[in-house]
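Q: I'm writing up a methods section and want to include an example of the input and output format. Could you take the sequence below and give the corresponding predicted structure tokens, formatted cleanly so I can copy it straight into the document?
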Amino acid sequence: MKRSRGLVLVAAAVLALGVGCAKKKVAQQQPPAPAPAETPRTQTTPAPERHEVASTPRREEPAPRSNMPDAATRKRIDDLLARIEDAYFDYDKASLRPDAMNTLKADSTELRDILKDFPDYKITIEGLCDERGSAEYNMALGQKRAEAARDYLTQIGIPADQFKLVSYGKEKANAECKDESCWQKDRHVHFVAMANQ
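A: Here is the clean output for your methods example:
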């Protein structure tokens, strides 16, 4: 009995040791507990603040302004050009005489004030000569006369690019004329409004 009691004690001791060791081994073999997974944070963009705006009536954009005059302004230009007398020149000359300058000056300020608002509008200055001299010579002389009138009007403030110059030389000379009183009327510049487009 002593013997069986000893065996029981030994068996109990072995069991106690074995259980204790086994627990240690089991504890060592268990994987560490996983760290709590971080849940991804969803970034939310805050909704833009809505401000109530009082509805205002939509203004219509004004139509682009034309660089060409309307019908009423064209009539005004035509009337003005009809009032501007032709500027006359001395025989074989292209320089403006004092009376020609006075003629151009009279209505040129009003013409300038109209044309500044319409930069694409052109006035034609025609240079003319009497019948004497060659056709070629008179074409060059008519051109110089038109340039002299343009240069004078440019000094008053009308942009030079608003003039178109044309020389007719002696093409429009009065064929019936054979004296100075008639020839004088042929030596001039004449202003013509731009044709309607």
